Amino acid sequence: MVTVDRVPHSSLHVSKPTWWLESRFHFSFADYWDPARKNFGVLRVLNDDLVKAGAGFGAHPHRDAEIFSYVVAGQLSHADSMGNKEALPRGCVQYMSAGTGVVHSEMNEGSETCRFLQLWITPDRSGHKPQYGSSVYNKADRHNRLLQILGGTGEAPAWPNTAKLHSIRLHQDANVFVSESDPLTRFELSFGPSRQAYIICIEGGLQVDEVQLDTRDGARITGRSDSDSSPFVLQAGPSGAHFLIVEMGKAASR
User: Fold this and answer.
1) N- to C-terminal Cα distance for the chain?
2) Range of the domain at 100
3) Which CATH number does the domain housing residue 46 bear?
4) Using H for helix, E for strand and C for coil, what is the string for 223-251?
């Protein structure tokens, strides 16, 4: 059996530092510090952001982090010091390996509030060459299946009903999947040895074994032992489920 540790959305830190931003932090970030929520394996940041139209995060630096954003609503515009600039809508992903250093901005240049998830993964080493990538998807790509949007340095899990379309390569042994599933759609999954996952229910409801996740809830999923490969079940709720999974090794890279 696996262990499912629910992270209710009511327990997330809500940051409203300015009129245009509302963020929910799954892990310690910025001025929020909780020693029990520093990271989960190599997953260091998971922020659920709402950015009002005509505003956003101006140019700022990063280094030695694998950063990606998954757009839920509206559109997100990215620009960086490598010369990349584009705006992407719902269901698309923007990825940046900050490596030795890069400056970027994330703006909402659209007319409606933009909701996006931003995740940071600790790289396998410092000093990578900075790089940028993006992938454009439509609902059919992730409908009632697991769409792999980012791959890593190791093998992806051999889960059933999985699609891999233009997935971006992370500098880490981690894999990221999304799904937008109809009511009661069911997935039976299992881990390899010493693997774990973090799930966020983006919209709708999702049952993970016997644990119910509501909109914006997260969950930490681990095996009972390093050799545990027991199956577990994901099932969309009566209104369907839009969710994201980060699958990774148990040990942090550094």
Assistant:
1) 28
2) 2-249
3) 2.60.120.10
4) ECCCCCCCEEEEEEEEEEEEEEEEEEECC
C-alpha distances in Å from residue 83, one per residue of 86, 88, 103, 172, 199: 10, 16, 10, 25, 33
Query: Would you tell me how many other CB atoms lie within 10 Å of the CB of residue 164?
Result: 13
Mean pLDDT, range 129-140, rounded to an integer: 96
Kind of pairing between the strands at 195-208 and 211-213: antiparallel
User: In terms of Cα–Cα distance, which of 104, 136, 107, 108 is closest to 120?
Assistant: 104
10 phi and psi angles, rounded to 5 deg: -70, -20
Residue 187 in domain: yes
Does residue 254 form part of some domain? no
Mean pLDDT of 129-146: 97
Please list the residues that pair with 220 across neighbouring strands: 5, 198
Number of domains, the chain: 1
**Tens-place pLDDT, residues 49-100:** 999 999 999 999 999 999 999 999 999 999 999 999 999 999 999 999 999 9
Q: What phi, psi does 152 have (nearest 5°)? A: -130, -160
Indicate the burial class of 16 (C-beta count within 10 angstroms; 0-12, 13-18, 19 or more).
Answer: exposed
Q: Is residue 176 part of a domain?
A: yes
- Please give the DSSP secondary-structure letter assigned to residue 42: T
pLDDT in tens, 203-218: 999 999 999 999 999 9
Report DSSP letters for 178-208, one per residue.
Answer: EEEE-TT-EEEEE--TTEEEEEEEEEEEEEE
Q: What is the pTM of this model?
A: 0.96
Whether residue 188 lies inside any domain: the answer is yes
Query: Which of 78, 40, 75, 52 lies closest to 174, judged by CA?
Result: 40
* β partners of residue 245: 177, 199
